[in-house]
Amino acid sequence: MDKQLFDTQRNHQNIFYRKLSKRTLLTNWLAILTANLLSPNLEAKTVKKETNKEKNTSRNIHEYYMRLAIKEGKNVPKYPFGAVIVNRLTGEIVSKGYNQSTHNPILHGEIVAINNCAKHKIKILWSELDLYSTAEPCPMCQSAIEWAGIKNVYYGSSIPFLQGLKWEQINIRAQEVSDRTPFRNTKIIGGLLEGECNKLFLTA
């Protein structure tokens, strides 16, 4: 009688543990499945957050350099064309310039900055450089940029905006000069701190 009771209890225990094992296995499987389903979403959100952060950091850097160009432009309030040349690999500000056309008609801010760079940075690799200008480079300045081999150009105020204020401007956009230069691949980005740059010319 005791043996039968013992066998019965053991059978109940075996059944219980088998059910428990199945339940545990199912729970673990569901946990793994849920984790796999959620992980891509979490990873995507993390990547998106990092990408937005990188974009914000990049924009802040470009705005910093443009504000230096604005500062250069303020050296001549009546002709607030300022330019800064930056080594984009190191972040070094290699040259600055502002409009000096009252002394020499071709000394626009970009030309002065390029001349200063050539004078003081003889061994510079021009393809590593970016130029920031308070206004869209005129055909003369953009041509000089192409000949120099400067890779990227960032400007604030556009040529059409300056024309609207009755500034004398040759009616050829910087992008057109770049497009007609087959031996270069210059990237031109306009509208950087456009409001602050426009204000310079509105009050000039």
From TrEMBL:
Residue ranges that the Swiss-Prot or TrEMBL entry lists as coiled coil: none
Protein known as: Nucleoside deaminase
Alphabetized InterPro entries for the sequence: APOBEC/CMP_deaminase_Zn-bd, CMP_dCMP_dom, Cytidine_deaminase-like
Domain CMP/dCMP-type deaminase stretches: 60-168
Top EC class for this record: hydrolase
GO molecular function: tRNA-specific adenosine-34 deaminase activity
Organism: Microbulbifer epialgicus
One Pfam family, short name: dCMP_cyt_deam_1
UniProt EC number: 3.5.4.33
Keywords: Hydrolase, Metal-binding, Zinc
